């Protein structure tokens, strides 16, 4: 009879899949359709929260923690119908298992990010800051544990509780810290590098302390068991270094750059992660440690590590990891925090962890002669919690070290301390972007022998052939003014771990990465390095990784600090095989418009229709015909100045096509009040053209034509008659009315809008130029300082 009662109390095991609703079976009574629904609900809900929190610059982990809590008994879970339908108790084993599988591989990715070689090279300053940032909060956590054990956690096993509290208060979340630094463009500043180094040391120390806490929290009363667990764990780490690392190194060496990694190698590595997790779980220090250790011992050199990350991070971070936050949220009931005592304990825990982390870090930083503001910023950064914190708390709850109320208090502590990191940091530390004033902000200049610097941006390999051919065409003969090109790869800062790893290549003051010391493995960078055999051009590959809503700041800041005369941007559309223009994304369209508004120099937008074909054209084979339609105005003069620079190349011929209004229909300044301004612009234009006609650069390769036009149709017909050329260079704000009825690209201006539209049939590429106007530069991103040297030194030589 007793046996019957036990059987009836246990929920029946769920079958995997149903026969369908038409067979009168609810899919929610079966494991597979239910877990699918749970995944969809969790992912959609957390992504929606992340979108809502994005204006606050909060990392996605905040949305995932909040989402998990709201899906649990704190909010939606208060409805019995909801919890019994979507998250019934009999489904939680499947949910927890899948969530922990995702967590295993995520911690493998975290291990891949942590480079022990870099941590070993951590300076004494970062090491001291890390140790102080661990020690003081750990000690305060021990003190707090006595307060909690005498109030809401009575009867708890004291020793493991002390260690768990110390670990919970002393952790710094390495991945979350990296994300916050990257989004605030601080990852490559001095404070960012110091924080990352200290967080790396902190992460390793936290895992060691967590292993100790888990070993001490076993059910066996024998004091020898924790000792055996720790010794076995240490033996596993030694085995991983001596046996697993050489195996992974062997596979990494057999994966040369530019070739795909064998499927067998990926399969072996992922199986090793699972096998190592099984071993550490058997030892008794949790399966997560095995995955983390395999990630740490995986060689970081070469493409093997990067490709492993790319293959698994989207599935793990996008689908499986949010399940862990949901699983954690289902265990978190904030409503258990009742009364003044409980809320007072929550405040005590938050203040204790903030004081310990920030105070310890500030004291250590100031002992290392770090200024107070930077020391405070480091303290705030080191106070960041995240996923590892939740892992510690969940293990503590599973092992009965933490009860429901203590667990809820510590989860809220992690949420609050991480949430306040970004606003506090923005309030305390906002370094000014400084740069030296410079003279040559345009192509047009009196001194033609001065160095011409161009910042050429590109999104993908599609842009590179035309970009290199533009550089080749712009270099002239090398006898009059050297050409220096900064080739900047624009990359969106995604939620991927690999994006953060890429930012580690960056060097100075939050600026984009310089591939200067190590030879780059980026194929796009290699293309520019290969081009440098032309000694008249210095090409400096760079990488800007940022959110697309703010990447224009990186572009404009780099342009100022590198003292460039023109920024070249790729158009946000490319030409399809049928000739139609296809957009690569609205975000890149917005990037171009923001750069046009905030640029400290001239800007060119390149509409690529395959200038020179799909490969680099060697100097001896360059044979381009360039047309510059000239209507008048600042932008047209800058476009023509660039054309004159290009015609210095012996393989280029330039046609200047000056449009003259027959009946004033093309006059841009058609109001009486602007007559004086129009007259002044015309005088400047005429003087500029006279100087060009006397310029010896063009010689026989330069031709000048005037066309009298009386309507927009005349302008269109004239431009179509010259459409057999290779490149049009036009001013953005040409003195002419719009030549198309409607356009979704007003930033290209009247002429550029026509030449880049699908209705204008041509194979010629188009460069739309906006000349730098000091009067319009009212919101500079750079604070000019005559004493600032930074990166203003003359650059010579090629990249190593």
UniProtKB/TrEMBL annotation:
Annotated Cation/H(+) antiporter central domain residues: 480-619
One Pfam family linked to the record: Na_H_Exchanger
UniProt record, GO biological process: potassium ion transport; regulation of pH
This protein's GO CC annotations: membrane
Chain segments annotated as transmembrane: 30-49, 61-77, 97-116, 128-149, 161-182, 194-216, 228-252, 264-297, 343-368, 407-429
Top-level division of the source organism's lineage: Eukaryota
InterPro entries, alphabetized: Cation/H_exchanger_TM, CHX17_2nd, CHX17_C, CPA2_transporter, Na+/solute_symporter_sf
Domain Cation/H(+) antiporter C-terminal: 626-772
Compartments, record wording: Membrane
Domain Cation/H+ exchanger transmembrane intervals: 45-425
Lipid bilayer topology: Multi-pass membrane protein
GO molecular function: antiporter activity
Keyword annotations of the record: Antiport, Ion transport, Membrane, Potassium, Potassium transport, Transmembrane, Transmembrane helix, Transport
Family, similarity comment: Belongs to the monovalent cation:proton antiporter 2 (CPA2) transporter (TC 2.A.37) family. CHX (TC 2.A.37.4) subfamily.
Record-given protein name: Cation/H+ exchanger domain-containing protein
Organism for this UniProt entry: Eruca vesicaria subsp. sativa (Garden rocket)
Lineage: Eukaryota, Viridiplantae, Streptophyta, Embryophyta, Tracheophyta
């Amino acid at each position: 009879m007793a046996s019957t009662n036990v059987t009836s109390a246990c929920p029946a095991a769920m079958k995997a899949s149903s026969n369908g609703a038409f067979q009168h079976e609810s899919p929610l009574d079966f494991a597979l359709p239910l877990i699918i629904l749970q995944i969809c609900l969790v992912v959609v809900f957390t992504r929606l929260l992340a979108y809502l929190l994005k204006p606050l610059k909060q990392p996605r982990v905040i949305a995932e923690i909040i989402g998990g809590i709201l899906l649990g008994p704190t909010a939606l879970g208060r409805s019995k119908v909801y919890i019994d339908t979507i998250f019934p108790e009999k489904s939680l084993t499947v949910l927890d298992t899948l969530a922990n599988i995702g967590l295993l591989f995520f911690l493998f990715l975290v291990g891949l990010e942590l480079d022990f070689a870099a941590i070993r090279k951590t300076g004494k300053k970062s090491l001291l800051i890390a140790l102080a940032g661990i020690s003081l909060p750990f000690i305060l956590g021990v003190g707090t544990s006595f307060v909690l054990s005498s109030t809401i956690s009575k009867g708890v096993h004291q020793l493991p509780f002390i260690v768990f509290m110390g670990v919970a208060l002393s952790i710094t979340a390495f991945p979350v810290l990296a994300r916050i630094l990257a989004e605030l463009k601080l990852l490559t500043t001095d404070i960012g590098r110091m924080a990352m180094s200290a967080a790396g040391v902190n992460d390793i120390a936290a895992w060691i302390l967590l292993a100790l806490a888990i070993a001490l929290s076993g059910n066996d009363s024998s004091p020898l068991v924790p000792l055996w667990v720790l010794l076995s764990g240490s033996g596993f780490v030694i085995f991983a270094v001596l046996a697993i690392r050489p195996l992974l190194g062997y596979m990494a060496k057999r994966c040369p750059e530019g070739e795909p990694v064998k499927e067998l190698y990926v399969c072996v590595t992922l199986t090793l992660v699972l096998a190592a997790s099984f071993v550490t779980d058997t030892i008794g220090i949790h399966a997560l440690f095995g995955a983390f250790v395999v990630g740490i011992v995986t060689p970081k050199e070469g493409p093997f590590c990067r490709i492993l990350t790319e293959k698994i991070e989207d599935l793990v971070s996008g689908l499986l990891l949010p399940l862990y936050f949901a699983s954690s949220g289902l265990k978190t009931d904030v409503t258990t925090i009742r009364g003044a005592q409980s809320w007072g304990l929550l405040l005590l825990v938050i203040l204790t962890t903030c004081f310990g982390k920030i105070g310890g870090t500030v004291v250590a930083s100031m002992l290392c002669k770090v200024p107070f503001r930077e020391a405070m910023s480091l303290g705030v950064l080191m106070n960041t919690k995240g996923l590892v914190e939740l892992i510690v708390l969940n293990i503590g709850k599973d092992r009965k070290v933490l009860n429901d109320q203590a667990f809820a208090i510590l989860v809220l502590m992690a949420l609050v301390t991480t949430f306040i990191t970004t606003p506090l940091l923005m309030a305390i530390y906002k370094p000014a972007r400084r740069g030296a004033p410079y003279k040559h902000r345009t192509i047009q200049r009196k001194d033609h022998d001065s160095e011409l610097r161009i910042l050429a941006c590109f999104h993908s390999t599609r842009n590179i052939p035309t970009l290199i051919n533009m550089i080749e065409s712009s270099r002239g003969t090398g006898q009059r003014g050297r050409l220096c090109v900064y080739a900047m790869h624009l990359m969106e800062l995604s939620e991927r771990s690999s994006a953060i790893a890429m930012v580690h290549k960056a060097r100075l003051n939050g600026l984009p990465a310089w591939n200067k010391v190590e030879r780059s493995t980026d194929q796009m960078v290699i293309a520019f390095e290969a081009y440098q055999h032309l000694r008249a051009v210095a090409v400096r590959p760079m990488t800007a990784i940022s959110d697309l809503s703010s990447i224009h700041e990186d572009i404009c800041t780099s342009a100022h600090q590198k003292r460039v005369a023109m920024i070249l941007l790729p158009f946000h559309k490319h030409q399809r095989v049928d000739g139609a223009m296809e957009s690569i994304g609205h975000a890149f369209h917005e990037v171009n418009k923001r750069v046009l508004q905030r640029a400290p120099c001239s800007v060119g937008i390149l509409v690529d229709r395959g200038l020179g074909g799909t490969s680099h054209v060697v100097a001896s084979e360059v044979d381009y015909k360039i047309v510059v339609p000239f209507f008048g105005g600042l932008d047209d003069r800058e476009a023509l100045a660039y054309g004159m620079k290009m015609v210095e190349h012996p393989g280029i011929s330039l046609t200047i096509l000056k449009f003259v209004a027959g009946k004033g229909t093309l006059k841009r300044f058609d109001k009486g009040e602007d007559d004086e301004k129009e007259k002044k612009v015309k005088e400047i234009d005429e003087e500029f053209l006279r100087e060009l006609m006397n310029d010896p650069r063009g010689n026989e390769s330069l031709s000048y034509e005037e066309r009298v036009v009386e309507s927009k149709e005349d302008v269109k017909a004239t431009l179509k008659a010259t459409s057999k050329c290779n490149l049009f260079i036009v001013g953005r704000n040409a003195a002419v009315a719009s030549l198309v009825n409607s356009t979704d690209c007003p930033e290209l201006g009247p002429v550029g809008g026509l030449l880049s539209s699908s209705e204008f049939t041509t194979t010629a590429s188009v460069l739309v130029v906006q000349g730098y106007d000091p009067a319009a530069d009212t919101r500079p991103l750079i604070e000019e300082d005559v004493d600032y040297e930074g990166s203003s030194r003359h650059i010579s030589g090629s990249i190593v």
